[in-house]
């Protein structure tokens, strides 16, 4: 057969499921001081209903799961769970394709499909399975003898499809998609509406020793919206690398349950830390505000909008460094407008968001201003309390300075609140300007000798009253330590705050986050092959 003259007939519109335009509505969970669980709920990019012959049973689901676990996951063109909006940009060439797992709208039922670009249009073909094997009548419809044929393996079906095309281009999955076998779960740290968080260990590709991580695991039989949030958060976090943003090591999405493997941040969320820690100095609050501003400056420079910035969504390390987390609502782009706001965290939203549904960098800056009020009040109550949500909605839109705190301390942050919560988004600063202002404040404090206090962590207080090996001299501010020769020597004791400030001043800009050995911080973009070749089978570690 002359492949150049092979019938290149494209399936008709009715024979495959076309990509459709979508209009997302934004939904937030109720915000009453608890962790907000948010989700993009409306997505018209559904991949359709089940074929009649794959209505399926538990036995069918188990057979498919076993096939994925034993065979399919070893092929690089299998991407695991994916949703519309994440893979279209990967299909850059006509006849490029990938195989993915998907979930029907309003269901927990999963199925496999082939996503491909045909004549510059991204299309999706459902794969059906029975005891005789895999089939896809619509994909192979131009070959009558092959259309109804069943194949033991999906790659055999793809080889048959290649006879219809001059070339087909398999698209390899991204590097942050990892095998379940690389992750070991430990103690449970907490749980939320859509998942559980565990302390665990992860063995990076090429590494010899595992590292401690936090693992966010999808609960069993999660609905489409919950699974989509997992995958969306991984897609966003996978492209971010900054010292003040929680690092994503990978997403285990090839099998079930889906797991996000992230940097382990042991100090908990900032909201609880502020509520539970006594005597936090103004100096430390300014450092917290600088950490958050630095992370948001990076996020804005990468053209991402967080859309849910709050103290509850910031984590704190044992060294009191703040890291921004929870990217379930983050959006790639400079601006987005949503039609409806359901159960929105009103207290953190800007006037233009409440009035027009607009989200951009300036609306994140407004939310940052509200976070500053949380720092100043130590999260004693929700912002704008004791007003109800309805009263807050009206107050934010009508008041000239909705979040102004009279005689607030530190005064530098009180002034910054007024600037960040400027009701005119044009005169409201961007995050670069906010960060520069805070850096000047930190430098002036350090120069004036004001950043000399120690940090007020509970553990630090316990150490002061405990049996420490190093004793502080009562009057001279020196620490007596034993040298290698066994003699006592006195050295000046620097607080953690001083060390943080010195580090900030010496470092002009924060470099890329250090990753475990064997991990590449940049997403690899390999050139696609020009001819169909079944990619080599990659055996899991």
Summarize this structure as a short list of keywords or feature phrases.
single chain, 541 residues, alpha+beta, SHC Adaptor Protein, Phosphorylase Kinase, domain 1, Transferase(Phosphotransferase), domain 1, 3 domains, 6-stranded mixed sheet, 5-stranded antiparallel sheet, 25 strands
Instruction: Give the radius of gyration.
Output: 27 Å
Strand content: 15-25%
Task: Give the uncertain stretches in residue-range form.
Answer: 1-57, 452-493, 523-537
Tell me which oligomeric state these chains represent.
single chain
Summed up, the domain count is 3
The CATH H-level superfamily of the largest domain is Transferase(Phosphotransferase) domain 1
Instruction: Tell me roughly what share of residues is in helical segments.
Output: 25-40%
Secondary structure class reads: alpha+beta
Distance between the termini: 41 Å
DSSP, total strands: 25
Enzyme class: transferase
Family: Belongs to the protein kinase superfamily. Tyr protein kinase family.
Biased composition (Basic and acidic residues): 1-23, 456-473, 482-495
Protein name: Tyrosine-protein kinase
């Amino acid at each position: 057969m002359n492949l150049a003259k092979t019938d290149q007939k494209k399936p008709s519109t009715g024979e495959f499921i076309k990509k459709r335009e979508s209009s997302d509505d934004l939904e937030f969970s109720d915000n009453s001081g608890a962790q907000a669980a948010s989700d993009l709920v409306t997505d018209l990019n559904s991949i359709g209903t089940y074929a009649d012959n794959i209505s399926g049973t538990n036995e069918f689901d188990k057979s498919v799961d076993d096939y994925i676990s034993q065979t399919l996951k070893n092929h690089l063109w299998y991407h695991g769970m994916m949703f519309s909006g994440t893979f279209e940009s990967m299909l850059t060439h006509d006849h490029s394709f990938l195989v993915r797992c998907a979930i029907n709208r309003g269901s927990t039922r999963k199925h496999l499909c082939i996503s491909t670009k045909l004549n510059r249009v991204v299309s999706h073909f459902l794969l059906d399975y029975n005891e005789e094997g895999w089939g896809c009548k619509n994909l192979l419809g131009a070959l009558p003898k092959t259309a109804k044929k069943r194949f033991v393996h999906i790659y055999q079906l793809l080889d048959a499809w290649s006879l219809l095309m001059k070339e087909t281009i398999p698209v390899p999955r991204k590097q942050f998609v990892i095998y379940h076998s690389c992750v070991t779960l430990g103690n449970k740290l907490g749980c939320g509406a859509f998942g559980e968080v565990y302390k665990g260990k992860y063995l990076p590709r090429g590494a010899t020793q595992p590292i401690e991580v936090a693992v966010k695991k999808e609960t069993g039989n999660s609905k489409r919206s919950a699974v989509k949030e997992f995958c969306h958060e991984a897609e966003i976090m996978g492209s971010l690398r900054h010292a003040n943003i929680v690092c994503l090591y990978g997403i285990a999405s090839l099998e079930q349950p889906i797991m996000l493997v992230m940097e382990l941040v042991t100090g908990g969320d900032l909201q609880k830390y502020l509520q539970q820690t006594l005597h936090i100095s103004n100096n430390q609050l300014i450092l917290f505000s600088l950490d958050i501003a630095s992370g948001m400056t990076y996020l804005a420079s990468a053209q991402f909008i967080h859309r849910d910035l709050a103290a509850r969504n910031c984590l704190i390390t044992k060294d009191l460094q703040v890291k921004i987390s929870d990217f379930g609502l983050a959006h790639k782009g400079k601006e987005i407008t949503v039609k409806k706001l359901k159960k929105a965290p009103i207290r953190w939203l800007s006037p233009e968001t409440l009035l027009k549904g607009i989200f951009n960098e300036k609306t994140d800056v407004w939310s940052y201003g509200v976070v500053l009020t949380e720092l100043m009040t130590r999260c004693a109550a929700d912002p704008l309390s004791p007003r109800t949500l309805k009263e807050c909605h009206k107050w934010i839109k009508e008041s000239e300075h909705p979040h102004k705190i009279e005689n607030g301390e530190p005064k530098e942050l009180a002034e910054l609140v007024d600037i960040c919560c400027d009701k005119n988004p044009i005169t409201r600063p961007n995050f670069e300007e906010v960060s520069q202002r805070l850096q000047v404040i930190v430098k002036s404090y350090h120069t004036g000798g004001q950043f000399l206090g120690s940090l007020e962590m509970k553990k630090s207080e316990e150490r002061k009253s405990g049996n420490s090996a190093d004793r502080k001299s009562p009057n001279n501010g020196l620490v007596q330590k034993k040298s290698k020769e066994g003699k006592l020597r006195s050295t000046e004791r620097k607080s953690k705050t001083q060390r943080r400030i010195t580090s900030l001043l010496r470092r002009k800009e924060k470099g890329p986050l250090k990753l475990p050995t064997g991990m590449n911080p940049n997403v690899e973009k390999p050139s696609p092959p020009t001819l169909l070749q079944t990619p080599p089978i990659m055996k899991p570690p």
